[in-house]
UniProtKB/TrEMBL annotation:
Any single Gene Ontology cellular-component annotation: cytoplasm
Residue ranges constituting the Arrestin C-terminal-like domain according to the UniProt record: 260-387
GO biological processes: nervous system development; protein transport
Alphabetical list of SMART domains matching this protein: Arrestin_C
Protein name: Arrestin C-terminal-like domain-containing protein
Amino acid sequence: MSASDSRLLVFISPSTEVHGQPLGAGARSGVRRRPEARSPAPRHSGLRASCLLKKELKKRRSTRKVYKEDPAMVDTVKTLGIVFDNEQKNGYCSGEIVSGHVLLDLLAVTQIKAIKITARGCAQVCWNEGPCGASSPITAPMATPSLGHCIKEEVEYFGASQTLIETTGSEDGEWVRLDAGRHELAFRFELPQRPLVSSFVGRHGKVQYGVNAVLQRPWAQDQSVNREFPVLSHIDVNSPPLLSAVSTNKEKMISWWIFTSGPVSLSVNIDRKGYCNGEMIPIYAEIENCSSRIVVPKATIYQIQTCLAKGKTRTYRQAVASVRGNHIPSGSSDTWNGKTLKIPPLPPSVLNSALIRVEYSLAVTVQIPGARKLTAELPIVIGTIPYAGLGARSASVSSQVSRYMSWLALALPEEPEAPPNYANVVTEEEFELYTPSLIQSEDLERQLGGPIFAYLQEFQFQPPPVYCEVDPHPVWVQEPPPPLGVSVSSASLPL
C-alpha cells in the first residue's frame, strides 16, 4: 500500500471526527449526514455603527457650540401665553366682547418680526366608518384610518384676526426690538350678533371657540399658543313651550312560549319640559304589575349626541343620572308622587347646529326578569336661564289672556252711553216728601243732658258684662193648650 492510500485510510477511519463527531457505520456504508449549522463569523457592523454615532454626536456638539456663540440663534423667549380679562365668565353670548392680553416674557433684547392673533369658532365632526358600517371615534381627526374611511366635516361660525406688532423691513435694523422683561399686548374681538352654537365636546364631534397667538422672529421658528373660551346660546326654560307638561303611557304583555303571565303597565308624567343644572325633576308615575314576576322601576336621564356629515348620521347615547325605585311584587302596584331626580352639571341642549345635536330625555324603565324591559321616554331640554317659579306660569297665562282679550275687544261693540244723573230725575219736593224727619242734634243733646260724642265714647270703652249662669232677664214662654180630647193630670201641672 502506498503512502497516499494510507493517508486516505486515515481520513476515513472510524475514529476520525467530522465536525466534532466520529464517523460510524452509516458513514462507511455511504449514508451522508447533514452537518450542523455553523455560527456566523463576527462582522464589523457594530463597530461601524458606533463610529457613525460618535461622528453624529461630535457634529451636534460643534453645532451647539456655534449656536451658543451666535447671539441671534439664542432662544430669548421665556413664556408666551394668553390671558382673558374676565377669566371667571361662564360663557360669552352673541354680540359680546372678548378681550384679553398676550403675555410675552423675554430673557434678553429680542427682535420681533410680527405678533398676530386670530379668533375662530367652528364645529367639527369626524368618525371612522369601517367596511361593514361599524363606526368608531377618531381621536386624531387628521390621521388616516387603516380600515374603512374617515367621514368628517367642518362648519365655521366666525373668524377674526388682529396684528399686534408688525414690521415690513428685511434688514436687522428695521425689526422691532423688545427689551427683556414682561410685555402685555391687548386684543379685543366682538362676537357676531347672530345666534351662535354653544360650546360642546362629544364623542364624534365638538364645537369650540378659541384664540391663537403667533410670534414671528427673524431667523427663528414661529411660536404659537392657543386658548379656548366658552360660548353659550341661552335657552330660557320659562318659555311657554318648555313650561308645558309631558306624559306618556306604555304597556307590555309578559309571556313565555304559549303561556301568558300578565301585563305590566306604566304611566309617567312631569310638570314641565325645561330644566337647568342642579334642579330636581319631580316624577309622577304609576306602575302596575299584573304578571307573575317581580319588577323594578328605574328613572334615567340620557344624553343623545347626533352627528351629521355627508348625508350620514352617527348617534351616541349615554346615561348621566339615574334613580331606582322599590321592587314591585306580582299582582301589586306602586306610585311615584313626585320622586325626585337631580340634574348633574351638563352642557345645555344644542338644537341650532347643522352638524351636531345634543338632546336629553327622561326614561322610566321597568326591568322584568326574563323579558325585555318596558320603557317610557319623555323629552326634556337643559337650558341656561333658570325656572322663575309660579311667576313664569302666571306671566305666560296673563300674556295669553291679554292676547285673547285684545281679540275680544275688537269683537265687542262701542261703549254705551252713561245713565242719567239722579239729581236730574228726582226733584227736591219728592226728596223731602219721601225722606223721614230726623230729630235735630240740639234737641237730642238737651234730652240726654250732654253731648252725643261723650255717650258714644263711654259706650265704646265699656267692658263686657260678667258671665252668669242665671239669666238676669228671663223670658217666660206660654205653653200651647193641649189638644181637644186629651185630659191633663194634676201631676203634670207645675207646682
